[in-house]
Amino acid sequence: MLENSPAEQIFHGTAVSRGIAVGPIHVIGRGFTAPEVYNIPEAFVPAEQERFSKALQITQKQLADLQEHMESLSGHEEGLVFEAHSMILDDPGVTKEVRRAIAERLQNAEYSFYAVMQTYLESMRRISDAYLKERTIDIEDVCQRVLRNFSTEEVPSTSPDQAHLLVTYDLTPSDTASMDRSKILGFVTEAGSVNSHTAILARALGIPAIVGIGNAILETTALAPAIIDGYTGTFIVYPTEKTIALYKVLAAERKAAREELESQKDQASTTRDGRHITLSANIEFTNELETVRQFRAEGVGLFRTEFFLLESNEHPDEEDQTKVYTELALGVAPNQGIIRTLDSGGDKLPAEPLTETEPNPFLGWRGIRVSLDRQELFKTQLRSILRSSAHGKLGMMFPFISGLTEIRTCRKLVKECMEELDAKNQPYDADLEIGAMIEIPSAVLVADELAKEVDFFSIGTNDLIQYTVAVDRINHRVAQLYRSSHPAVIRLIKMTTDAAKRAGIWTGVCGEMAADLNLTPLLLGLGVDELSVGPHDLAPVRKALRSLDYSKCQELAEKALTLPTAKEILKLSKDAAQEAYPDLFDT
Ligand code: PEP
Ligand code: MG
Asked: How far apart are CA 365 and CA 373, in angstroms?
């Protein structure tokens, strides 16, 4: 892609976070650290090419020294690895291409080197040959060394720090959580899926994002102008004047529709025939509370605590945690804030470094299993929640519950914590609600028993779906099998709401399905009492609820429970949604 006047390129992926972002691309590959990228004036080309040659020479010298040193210590064989590294740099094809990239793309030498090597490496990674795959690690090692050897003298000072669109292979939830919103306008990844924590966080942060974008990382150039359309999953590189004009209109239309929707934020989330559904928000950080209040959530239905607990260098102690939960209690008052206890593992960070990687992290040391194995850590969190409950209305719930014993043990530990606080005369709300997340099919099958032990159920559909249909929620190869409207899933939801009703407790849904406007009629009809969604989804879901009749949705759900396929169930609910709120799909 080194043409002088590049043609518009269009890539399609899965839209995971709404919005339109326009800006220059920044490509970050895998394997070794990306250097800064910036444009250089044409006059700097020879100097940059020279910097590249020097970096290569220094690296060759270092490798020769290392080889000699190694040979003197352990013999000729051991030194050979550095000779092999050195040969990689001798490839005249690479040298020529980097020099050409500097001259044609007018980008700094280290980035040009990085981009050329990333393209080579990415092509090698995609060949299913074990030997070649292994060699990529050697090449990455050499590349990292070359990058360290670039002199930084006489570097022209054009601004490298501009806001950009990130194009990368994949992002971890922690990469996403720590994104600087003022620098990263949107992102595009090759891997990933709608229900990964990365996608959930992108929506929470309001960052337009597309995943599963095919070869974009191989085919795009840093600093090229581009547009991310987070509504349709379209990524446009080198957009034409016409495309830019079109997107300007589209962005303005979406903004106007959104503003109109948000102006209705004070209306109750009550159906046309008077059934009130508690509409609350999912958050990961207390700085989202401002948005939660702005969009008038009726509380926080899910505070995912693992991000703030695991991302600091040291696990926050009882005082630090109490501060955060108190902030939540005060921030949602007079409504309730439900804190989910640590749900580490799966696609998120482990609670502690693991000595060996887990073969199946989603079936492994995750959620409540970790807390029950590390009871001191767990009790610290429980005491912090209890202490904060003295300052406002809090609830707590436990993730990844598979059966009754776990819930009973949790309750026993809560009781112990209450006694410890009593002994110290520390106040707490003895009546705070305690809930179980329903996200494993076994929990649904024993829901009648669980319901006797808790005050509410919160259905985590993200996991309930993955464990019901055995589809990894972050594996894009099987993403088409991950269906919220699968008959088994909706039957499990109905079994849960029925069990809750028999026991006189309430049921919420806090998985991403709660914000899927196509499925609002179905969830409503299945008898849920609360929907908890990302702050940016509050306005559309509120409008959807206000446009529906509960009694009609109940009939729809009854019918859905008789249908044999996900497709038919989706169609039934989608048709009702389109009829009740056709405009909402454009916000
Ligand atoms: C869920 O599984 O639906 C849920 C809300 O929890 P998480 O996405 O954090 O696993
Ligand atoms: Mg879950």
From this structure: 9
